[in-house]
Design brief:
This protein is of the alpha/beta class. It has 3 domains: 73 residues, no CATH class; 119 residues, Alpha-Beta Complex (Aspartate Aminotransferase, domain 1), CATH 3.90.1150; 252 residues, Type I PLP-dependent aspartate aminotransferase-like (Major domain) (Aspartate Aminotransferase, domain 2, 3-Layer(aba) Sandwich). It has 21 helices and 15 strands.
């Protein structure tokens, strides 16, 4: 029989909706949803028959089962919680920094009702959303003014649009970086309306290169921290202090794009290698500093601009600000995160990303051993070993830095490491691991403390299933 004949033998939608096999689905779900799922199921069957990958029309019971699976998919939200077992604390694909409990509480408080987003309660009149985090940011960094937008790329674009639209901005060739999603600094600068003047070479830029490039059409100097890669060897760059001195001799502002946005000195707070921090950049003479809220700050996605009050005030009046402004949820989460940073010990204890990045190796090993033991009990067919490994910070922060860690290395006879990794992604919530040396590697560093029991249950489910 031809595929066309088979397609004509598929029961009609009305017939299927009246069948006993779909009665339970119709009783439990709105008819419109069942109808949508059924039509998707039938479209899939017709496509398989036409392609010759299905032999004959399935029974009504099989159509009902497939429709139920479609309903489950329709009910499943696109943005889903996952368990991060990659060991990368600031995993961009997984949403970067998990929010502190204080930020989650602030979201809960604000999200379900009305708020003072643009209302001055004390004066009983219209207020500005841009005032909510301003005092905290200025107190934490010593900046004269502050502004919050939706991400760091928007912060850079807004700053350059206000300071250099239609004019030139000078930048070192070694800082024309590409960030996530194939976005490049030159493209962002171009969208701001400024024209790039490149100076120096890929690996070496000197003060004289900037001096020679400054001319009548120069409006600003941009320095970009290479937060997602590092250069070693025959390398020279002009530090922010010297660059600010050069620019200020010509009455030009300096914009410093820090990217990762660490507030204090990381060597003191996290025990990590040096990373440029916001306060130091401002003290060195940067007129505007920009950074992300969801990297080393440990808060929600946001872009922060700090610096001279007169320049920040100009950006507040820029029409582009409305296109990149943030909403009440971002402001609530960011303010709660910033409040933790008023005391560095409080920040380290209360911000999950900082806890993960600065986790002690011995403590990680003990935790891995405990989770491995629990997993062996739940999935006795699997071989689970605790092995030494390394992970990265992620999120375009601390390029090249390897964090010593301890992982659960999982193998199972008859199933490849790729099959195990895929099976973990198919449970609910998905467990995201990585493949290492012919094994599934699960790193507890990024499994949140309140996820441990669920982590063991879901990995065991993936291992004990039929794949």
């Amino acid at each position: 029989m031809s595929a066309g004949d088979d397609r004509r033998r598929i029961p009609s939608v009305d017939t299927l909706l009246q069948s006993e096999e779909l009665a339970d689905l119709l009783a439990a779900r709105p008819r419109s949803l069942v109808l949508s799922a059924l039509r998707r199921t039938l479209a899939g069957i017709r496509a398989e028959l036409a392609a010759g990958v299905r032999d004959g029309v399935p029974a009504v019971s099989a159509i009902a089962a497939a429709t139920k699976r479609e309903l489950i998919e329709l009910d499943r939200t696109s943005l889903r919680r996952v368990i991060n077992a990659t060991g990368i604390p600031l995993h961009t694909n997984l949403g970067r920094a998990p929010l502190p409990a204080a930020a989650v509480e602030a979201l809960h408080d604000i999200a379900g009702g009305y708020s003072s987003l643009e209302y001055d309660v004390g004066r009983g009149r219209r207020g500005s959303r841009h005032d909510h985090c301003a005092a905290l940011l200025m107190a934490l960094t010593g900046a004269g003014g502050s502004l919050v937008v939706n991400n760091n790329a928007a912060a850079v674009m807004l700053a350059l649009n206000e300071l250099a639209d239609g004019r030139e901005v000078i930048i070192s060739r070694g800082e024309l970086v590409e960030i996530g999603g194939s976005f490049r600094v030159p493209d962002i600068v171009a969208k701001s309306g400024a024209r790039i003047v490149e100076v120096g070479t890929t690996n070496r830029t000197h003060p004289a290169d900037y001096e020679r490039a400054i001319g009548p059409h120069t409006a600003a100097v941009l320095k970009v921290h290479r937060s997602n890669f590092s250069q070693t060897g025959f390398v020279t760059e002009v530090d922010i202090g010297e660059l600010a001195a050069i620019a200020h001799r010509h009455d030009l502002p300096v914009v410093h794009d820090l990217g990762s946005g660490l507030l204090p000195d990381a060597q003191q707070t996290l025990g990590l290698p040096w990373e440029p921090n916001v306060h130091a950049s401002l003290c060195a003479g940067a007129d505007i500093v920009t950074f992300s809220g969801d990297k080393l700050l440990g808060g929600p996605q946001a872009g922060v601009l700090l610096g001279r009050q007169d320049l920040i005030d100009r950006m507040r009046r820029n029409p582009l600000l409305r296109a990149v402004r943030v909403g009440k949820l971002t402001l609530a989460a960011l303010e709660a995160t910033l409040r933790l940073w008023r005391d560095e010990e409080t920040a380290r204890a209360g911000i999950p990303a900082l806890q993960m990045i600065g986790a002690d190796s011995d403590a990680l090993r003990s935790r891995a051993e405990r989770l491995a033991s629990a997993l062996r009990e739940r999935a006795p067919r699997a071989k689970v070993e605790v092995v030494r490994d390394v992970s990265e910070v992620g999120g375009g922060s601390y390029p090249g830095l390897q964090l010593e860690t301890w992982c659960l290395e999982v193998t199972l006879s008859g199933r490849s490491e790729r099959e195990l990794e895929s099976a973990c992604r198919k449970v609910e919530p998905p467990v995201i691991g990585r493949v290492r040396q012919a094994a599934l590697c699960l790193d507890p560093r990024t499994v949140l403390p309140d996820e441990e029991t669920l982590f063991v249950l879901k990995v065991a489910e993936a291992l004990e299933g039929d794949g």
